[in-house]
Structure formats: structure tokens, C-alpha cells
């Protein structure tokens, strides 16, 4: 459910079509965990018969259907059919959003997920309109499929390398940051040499747009890997960033020990594995 509500916020962040108050109210209802209210609003907008707003209302109705509890296979299929019709009608923002949701349904909403179908939708979206916010949002989703769901007979390093190639399509800072974190997490997950994750963590931190918990974890990961690589200045920078920006983080004791160690004031403390 969080995915659909998050995508509602993405729609609210920029106009999908020429919209009236009803459309915005519908998206706000979804973002506010009121999908039943949203469906009524979007139905009213469609009944008004204005083509400029009706297509977006159809999109909103389909999104609301995905999160109206209880969700049945029949309801998911009905939403999928609505998205498919919208996706085939053009290449405007509504069509792109619909194709994104086709990918999400195949990836997460089916009783038996279809990673290959999800990847096809995401790739088509990225290739059609790579600069769109929907294509940019699809990049990290496709990367997760490449790493954890597709061609699992191949070594993890090869799957991670395919995900890294998606950086060529990532035009927005948020898309680049998410993709770097996916790659770094995969390196930790498959227990590849941890130092391979460091450039990706640094890149994600430079791009910004990290949620609070993710940013704190990223600081610690960068600091620990930098310390292990002998880059004392970089390790100190990120340990101190954690102390300064997250004064109540439970890792303060460990971080202060690390800083004392870097100053030569106490013996080394055993290193925990970086948090994936």
C-alpha cells in the first residue's frame, strides 16, 4: 500500500493534466489513506465529462482500486485493465504513469509476481520517455529486479553490473541516489568485497535526497568503509556528520570510540559489518 500512496504524492508534486480541485482532492485522499473517498471523487470527475480531466481521473480511480481493502485478484485485474488502456492511449504523463503502475502490479500486486513482465514495462517506460519522472522512478525498481529476481542463474556480480549500467539513464538526483543505494545494498547482501560499495555510497550521499534513517546509515557505512581503507580524513568527516546531524542516534557510543581510535587515544574496537 505504501507504494501507491507514495505515487499519489508523486502525482501531487506536478501536474499530470489540466486539473481542477476535484482531481487534487482525489490524489490527496489517496495520499491520506482514504482510497474509498478518492474513488468517489474520481468517479464524479469522470461523470462531469471533461476530457482534459477524465483521463487523469481514470488513472486515479485505478490507483485507488489497488489499495482499497480488501484487495482481491479480480480487483487488481480490473485496475490492471484500466492502466493498460491508459498506457496504450498515448505518451502523455497519464499514459506514462499508467505504464509505471503496470510494472508495479506485475512486481508486487499479483498473487504470483511476474518479474519479467514488470521489467518489460519499466524498460519500455525508460526507453520511451527517459526524462519523465515516471521513468526516473522506474530505474531503481528495474535495478532491484535485475539484482534479485531476473536471471538468477548468473553470478551476483554480473547482475549487479547490469544494474549499474542503468546509471546511464538516471537523470534526476533522486534516481541516481536510489540506484547507487540499490547497488551498494546488493554488494552487502551478496557478501562481495565491501569496499566495492564505497563509491556508490559516496555518490548517493553527494546526490542528497536521502530519507533521515537512510542518511544516518549511509554516514556510518561510509565512515566504517573509509576507516577500513585507511582514509582517516574521510572516516572522521562522516563520523562527525552523524554526531552533528543525528544527536540521538544509538550509535553515538561506537562512533565516539572510533574517533578516539583515529586520534590514537584507545585500542581499536572490533568493526561491525556495514549496515546494508
TrEMBL record:
Keywords (A to Z) from UniProt: Signal
UniProt cross-references to InterPro entries, sorted A to Z: TPR-like_helical_dom_sf
Cited Gene3D superfamilies: Tetratricopeptide repeat domain
Superkingdom of source: Bacteria
Signal peptide (UniProt feature, chain positions): 1-17
Name of the protein in its database record: Tetratricopeptide repeat protein
Native source species: Horticoccus luteus
Amino acid at each position: 500500500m505504501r507504494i501507491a500512496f507514495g505515487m499519489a504524492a508523486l502525482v501531487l508534486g506536478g501536474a499530470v493534466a489540466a486539473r481542477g480541485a476535484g482531481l487534487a482532492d482525489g490524489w490527496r485522499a489517496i495520499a491520506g489513506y482514504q482510497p474509498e473517498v478518492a474513488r468517489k471523487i474520481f468517479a464524479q470527475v469522470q461523470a462531469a465529462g471533461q476530457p482534459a480531466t477524465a483521463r487523469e481521473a481514470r488513472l486515479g480511480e485505478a490507483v485507488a482500486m489497488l489499495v482499497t481493502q480488501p484487495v482481491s485478484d479480480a480487483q487488481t485485474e480490473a485496475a490492471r485493465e484500466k492502466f493498460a488502456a491508459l498506457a496504450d492511449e498515448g505518451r502523455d504523463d497519464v499514459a506514462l504513469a499508467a505504464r509505471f503502475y503496470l510494472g508495479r502490479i506485475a512486481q508486487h500486486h499479483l498473487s504470483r509476481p511476474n518479474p519479467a513482465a514488470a521489467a518489460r514495462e519499466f524498460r519500455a517506460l525508460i526507453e520511451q520517455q527517459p526524462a519523465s519522472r515516471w521513468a526516473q522512478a522506474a530505474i531503481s525498481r528495474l535495478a532491484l529486479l535485475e539484482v534479485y529476481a531476473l536471471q538468477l542463474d548468473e553470478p551476483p556480480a554480473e547482475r549487479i553490473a547490469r544494474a549499474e549500467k542503468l546509471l546511464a539513464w538516471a537523470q534526476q538526483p533522486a534516481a541516481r541516489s536510489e540506484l547507487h543505494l540499490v547497488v551498494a545494498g546488493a554488494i552487502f547482501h551478496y557478501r562481495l568485497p565491501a569496499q566495492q560499495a564505497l563509491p556508490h555510497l559516496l555518490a548517493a550521499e553527494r546526490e542528497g535526497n536521502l530519507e533521515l534513517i537512510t542518511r544516518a546509515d549511509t554516514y556510518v557505512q561510509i565512515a566504517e568503509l573509509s576507516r577500513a581503507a585507511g582514509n582517516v580524513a574521510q572516516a572522521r568527516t562522516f563520523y562527525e556528520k552523524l554526531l552533528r546531524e543525528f544527536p540521538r542516534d544509538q550509535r553515538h557510543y561506537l562512533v565516539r570510540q572510533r574517533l578516539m581510535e583515529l586520534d590514537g587515544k584507545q585500542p581499536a574496537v572490533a568493526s561491525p559489518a556495514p549496515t546494508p
